[in-house]
Amino acid sequence: MRIRITVNGRDLDVEASAGETLVEVLRRLGFKSVKDGCYTGTCGGCTVLLDGRPVASCIMLAAQADGSSITTLEGLARDGRLHPVQEAFLEVNAPQCGFCSPGMILTAVALLRRNPDPTREEIREALAGNTCRCSGYVKIVEAVSLAAEKMRGRAGDEA
Q1: Are 34 and 27 in contact (CB under 8 A)?
Q2: Are 123 and 108 in contact (CB under 8 A)?
Q3: Residue 138: how many CB atoms within 10 A of its CB?
Q4: Can you give the three-state secondary structure of 95-111, one letter per residue?
Q5: Can you tell me the distance from the alpha carbon of 70 to that of 113, in angstroms, rounded to the nearest whole number?
Q6: What's the CATH number where 45 sits?
Q7: Band of pLDDT at residue 156, cut at 50, 70 and 90
Q8: Does the residue 157 lie in any domain?
Q9: What is the pLDDT of residue 46?
Q10: 130/66 same-domain check
């Protein structure tokens, strides 16, 4: 079947088999930041923004995304500049092995779009669907908090 999706601002007409998941299609298209970690929707490695909402692409059929706009980590940078959440992750050295980072970053971006001044508890709650096996989440929460501060100081910049 043919599906139409917009990935990182680019309109695509893609062939997808009936049982193919969104993560499989995205990886086939070359979006390597979308990880296929668990295929049960529990680790967050496959997180993408679907029409602005974080979703587990490993448990979503590609056909369900037909007509949707998808953002992967590759689509966050603008004009050669990293997104403020990406910058903050690097600044505080939040990524360790890096496997969870794309899902964490995209989930944080969605959080900061709907709540530009989250508490640390709200950050932890938003990231609850993303598993990090390397850290205690301290640096990750610190990075999201720093990004929120920076983004509030950049009034008018696109989040």
Answers
A1: yes
A2: yes
A3: 11
A4: CCCCCCHHHHHHHHHHH
A5: 16
A6: 3.10.20.30
A7: very low
A8: no
A9: 97
A10: no
